[in-house]
Amino acid sequence: MAWAGSIFTSASVALALGAALVGCWQLGHPDCVIQTWHTFLAYQVVNIFCFFFNCYGKILPAVASSTLYISLLSFAVILITVPAVAPTHQHAQFVFATFINNTGWSSGGIAFIVGLVNTNWPFACLDCATHMAEEVHRPERMIPIAIMGTVAIGFVTSWFYSISMFFSIVGDFADIAATPTYVPILQLFYNALGNTAGAIVLEALIIATGLGCMIASHTWQSRLCWSFARDRGLPGWKFLSKVHPTLDVPIQAHFVSCAIVAAVGCLYLGSFTAFNSMVTACIVLLYISYAIPVICLLIKGRNNIKHGPFWMGPLGLFSNYVLLLWTLFTLVMFSFPYAMPVVPGNMNYVSAVYFVVVLIIVVDWFVRGRKSYRGQDNRHAEAEILQNEVVIR
Predict the structure, then answer these.
(1) Which of 199, 242, 357, 377 could lock 190 by a disulfide, CB 3.0 to 4.6 Å apart?
(2) What is the rounded distance in angstroms from the CA atom of residue 225 to the CA atom of residue 152?
(3) What integer pLDDT is reported at residue 386 of this predicted model?
(4) For this UniProt entry, which residues form the secretion signal (predicted)?
């Protein structure tokens, strides 16, 4: 579930970056009409470009640090520039008290819930740091700090960013939503600055941050693939579980994961709606992957495990139940159609995505997995046996 969610996450990031690149080109060339294959090609270029950064493990810390600083720099530059140069500003009532429902749902509540997919997406990958546990010093302490730091920085920056951008909307909101560049924030920049080059520069800062996110997403999906293959949980586990001796990365797992992302992108050529459903799937599948160990923890007993440095006691138990309820909520509500009335062109096909993923998992389990899979305890036992054999020899 987690690996499928990471694949779909990488695909959604690649599409967002591809659309942004094509949008910048279209803004600079107004006569250009964006075709589906333009965005598809940009998608593949982004995926291939970011692939190479994960081929050498020692540069990843520098890439991660650079991305953080670029993200904070772009936040500061955009936050100051756009409101400062916008010729007009929206009223506070529009920003804080106006609810625009363009979904066709008669219920504003349902429209709001369906729209939560967009705000959930940036925070969908919080488990990314946990899959680097074997490569991090003192992971029991550093990984929770990384996760909580992500949430804190993300909340503060996105809150102020969103509010300032809404105040900086020039003209009618509907014009921004129906932008010819298919990138509303780029159109917002252009309307506020009145300058094509300036808008593209600001969007380039976002794209640079997004490329760092894509690189991190590649790291995440490759580690998931490698670690699960190491437990013989995937077909071809002998090939996928190897770490390159000089590059210091699981290069085979990385290559296969990126190849699957490239293949998933082909779906965009057939149906944008079907591809968009995978964005929803990346959110919910990851929630399910979080819920499974929480369920196991509650069954085993929270006090029957060794407590870590961030043990929260009763508050932690409450958080566990909140996670399970929220997972169930998103599984149901995020499967609703994005717009009404429902036609094949706007249908939410995420249920079909769930079905395909579960079908692949079940078939693999009965055909191969139940015979070859070994859990962590078995792996440690086998390692101990091998070590004893070496000592005896």
Answers:
(1) 199
(2) 28
(3) 43
(4) 1-18
Does residue 292 lie within any of the structural domains?
Answer: no
How many domains are there within the chain? 1
Query: Which ranges constitute the DSSP H helices of 29-138?
Result: 36-51, 60-85, 92-97, 108-120
CA distance 290 to 279: 17
pLDDT at 19 over 70: yes
Nearest Cα residue to 135 out of 146, 150, 148: 146
Give the DSSP per-residue string, 240-252. HT---TTT-S-HH
CB 261 within 8 A of CB 11: yes
Radius of gyration of the chain (CA): 23
Residue 27 corresponds to which tokens in the numbers above? 């803004």
Q: Pull the structure tokens for residue 280.
A: 């929803």
Angle (nearest 5°) at CA 144 between 140 and 149: 150
Q: Say if residue 23 is exposed, middle or buried (CB neighbours under 10 Å; 0-12, 13-18, 19+).
A: buried
The answer to whether 337 touches 348, Cβ cutoff 8 Å, is yes
- Would you say the C-alpha torsion 353, 355, 358, 364 has a positive or negative sign? negative
**Which helix (H) or strand (E) segment is 194 a member of?**
none
Residue 8 to residues 125, 192, 267, 282, Cα–Cα distance (Å) = 11, 33, 12, 5
- Boundaries of domain holding 215: 2-286+327-392
Instruction: Tell whether 193 is covered by a domain.
Output: yes
204 contacts 222 by C-beta, under 8 angstroms: no
Sequence-separated (6 or more) residues with CB below 8 Å from residue 388? none
Residue 158: give its domain's CATH number. Answer: 1.20.1740.10
Determine contact, residues 10/217, Cβ cutoff 8 Å.
yes
| 319 is a domain residue | no
How far is 248 from 54, CA to CA, in rounded Å? 10
pLDDT above 80: residue 182: no
Angle at 42 between CA 124 and CA 339, to 5 degrees: 50
Over the stretch 266-312, which tens digit does the pLDDT of each residue have? 988 888 787 888 778 889 999 999 999 999 999 999 999 889 899 99
Question: Nearest 5 degrees, angle CA 362-CA 368-CA 369?
Answer: 65
